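Now for a typical sample entry:
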Amino acid sequence: MDKKEIAKVLEEIADLLELKGENPFKVRAYRTASRSLLNFEGNFKKLVEEEKLDELEGVGEHIAEKITELFETGKLAYYEKLKKSTPPGMLQMIQVHGLGPKKVKALHKKKIRSIEELKTAAEKGKVAKIRGFGKKSAQNILDSLAHREAYQKRTLWWDAMTIAEPILEGLKKLKGVQKAEIAGSLRRKLETVGDLDFLVAASNPKPIMKWFTSLPGIQRVLASGETKSSVKLEGGIQADLRVVKESEFGYALCYFTGSKEHNIKLRDRALSCGWSLSEYGLAGARKTKKAATEEDLYKILGFSYIEPELREDRGELQAAEKKKLPHLIEVKDIRGTLHNHTTSSDGKSTLREMAAAAKKMGWEYLGISDHSKSSFQANGMDEKRLLAQVEEIRKLNASKSLGIYLFSGLECDILADGKLDFPKKILDHLDYVIGSVHASLTQNEKAMTRRIIKAVENPSLTILGHLTGRLLLRREPSRVDAQKVIDACIANNKIIELNGHPLRLDMDWRLWHKASEKGLLCCINTDAHHADNHQFILSGVNAARKGWLEKSQVINTVSLKEMQKLLKSRKN
């Protein structure tokens, strides 16, 4: 484990101890030790190996032993024992947003000892009457539980694709399989999916169904038929397989890709032409040639081919009829990214490692944007450390030793009052500034909108980062008037980020089409915290494609020289 992972375990130990009613000084010691690890800027490995952990504030002999055990083995017997000795209901409740150890203990004393009991008590008004809660807290708990329930039914696109790809490759290799594709919301690149859909063309479905229902990692077989089977995989996600004739494949792929609303419009068009459209083909008195592919089907119905990402009934059919669909951006268009973290803040790879991985991606440049000082939980940099990093980047660029150009940037906290975390005289040393909200995320819509617009109006800001602060399937977006913020960015010549991290994908793709038509420029970033995270550019581009974005509307598709010129022109 690295220091950040260990710090998280220490914080969880403190929570568990507090739940058990342990000595407050002992609890505080673990919290202090956790913060000390996060704030330590030296060589952590060396500190452990030289047995100097006790030099850190809050780290005595016993905690030092536990840190060493975690560092060397990735496990801690004391931590596992604590979890086992804590009632399971309390462990579940502490994961509910807004419930800390003190509130969970208070609920436990009132004999509310599970998620189910918590929901019932909140609905009946019992939680609101408990000291330290109230009506607002009770409603917040109900909202959190509702979100939690919804989250459990969905899977991030990135995670679902990781599961689906090996299954698809296995299907393609089976004897007798003529064609095989992923369908459903996964193919449309929706940010989260409910299940996995596979479509196969074959004349003999039986051995294919047998292979599918015998996959390793199946929790249980839900249904097994001649042309359709459903299984529940480990982790809870459902996977469905349909087998059709090769002559039906184009129709079926379109139908099972969806969306439902898009398909309804397609069927309406077919009816207006005298046909009935289903997953098996076009039927009716009027003769037509067979559609061997989706492209053929769209052409027969009078449309240009519509990419799966656009099939959400958001004007794509009207645009396809007029031959005015966008030429969507592709991953190969990206020349670099600007939102990347290193070990200088909360990243897990060094500056050189991040640069080397970016070079392997074939990029020309990489922007380094570690956290600013107010993000103390992310080891945010103060003025001294920031300026030292700027100088290091300048020297590396001058030496040309990396084979890729580095821009010096910063992910600067937008404070609760809308001010940026550093003054202009510090920010002027940078090539660009990304402004992001990381704290006070629950401000009301009016306050949050005013806060972000004030930051947008700051001459030092270049890019607005992850607009709503959402974490998909984990945290709801902040309440903000996105249209007002978009208009403010256009008026102040600012760029908005499309954060491609699979947990964020923020600004939401649903906002990009109209925003880009107004003239808003996008920067697709990965929010990389590890050298491997550069791969997240794929999910970022997926979301951009769903937002109808073209290459010309995304700034990090330009060459190095053009990017240098662009960033320089936006410095005030």
